[in-house]
């Protein structure tokens, strides 16, 4: 069992780290928060395998709090670790979240730099493993909006229909996603090899370089997707992380949204999702005995999945006249593909309403539908 101490456990990164560690059966977590006095640190450090030093102050009402909340707190942590070393105890791994602002000559930057130096000094004297991360802008779920994160503010305001302010759209922004930060921390806790830059600071990947304007446009696009149904490429990289962050700011009353229902005598048709280059998703229904379709495509392809009822799919080759027929039902899920150059239809052969999921490899374009009516 690994015992770890998290300082700043109630902060943005601390909350995410605590949840990830709670999923591990081999880790015991002890926390140091604003409610704990500095005198509690020696007892909390007993038997600790790793310290995640995340506590800090970045926007105090009194500038003196920069010193007490950053430099002085870290010195107190180092003093407690020093006392352990004098007793012959094995010193734990220490991972500290600093900031790229530590390079700046202002009260905040100086306090973060002093905190870094205190840990590096302790490392030099006792040979303990210390990893100081000068993090750029960290974003993700539970980051406080209208504080010091443009991403958090944009997501919070946009999900609530509030305006966002972009002073300089071209302003450069370097971002790291909180889950990537946590993953690296846990790798180091588990003994992964560390990597450092030329200045001795721990490195973290991936980091995303973008602009404030691009982030604002993408977040506003997420909101618009509920109307257009067109979703960005949210499966990888920055867009994946940004979309997960955006959704995490949705108020519970907005967890769901309505779709347009198109109905006629045959049944209903509902579009669910469209993508820029990977097609669209929808579903349709058909009453008992109803046939839908009766058309062919030159290039468009589709995948059908009957999820309620049973169906007969019929096909006819447009040149040779060859025909093919197959039956499927919800109890044995089977994907049926439409093939270019074959006209096709689908008939509900059951007694109950048929429900069919549909994926098409392209978004329907009324100007170029690639859909030509032709009975089977």
Question: Which helices and strands occur, and which strands form pairs?
Answer:
Elements: E1 2-7, H1 12-22, E2 27-32, H2 41-44, E3 50-53, H3 64-86, E4 93-99, H4 107-126, E5 130-135, E6 137-139, H5 150-159, E7 172-177, H6 178-189, E8 208-211, H7 212-228, H8 237-248, E9 261-263, E10 268-274, E11 280-286, E12 291-296, E13 302-308, E14 310-317, E15 323-329, E16 335-338, E17 342-348, E18 354-360, E19 372-373
Parallel strand pairs: 1-2, 1-3, 3-4, 4-5, 6-7
Antiparallel strand pairs: 7-8, 9-10, 10-11, 11-18, 12-17, 12-19, 13-16, 13-18, 14-15, 14-17
Gist?
This protein is of the alpha/beta class and 376 residues long. 29% of the residues lie in helices and 28% in strands.
Ends distance: 67 Å
Average pLDDT works out at 95
Strand order of the largest sheet: 9-10-11-18-13-16
Q: How many strand units?
A: 19
H/E series, N to C?
EHEHEHEHEEHEHEHHEEEEEEEEEEE
User: What share of residues are in beta strands?
Assistant: 25-35%
| Helix and strand composition category | alpha/beta
Largest sheet data: 6 strands, antiparallel
| Helix segment tally | 8
Q: Summarize the amount of helix as a percent range.
A: 25-40%
Query: Oligomeric status of the shown chains?
Result: single chain
Gross morphology:
elongated
How large, in whole angstroms, is the Cα Rg? 29 Å
Low-confidence stretches: none
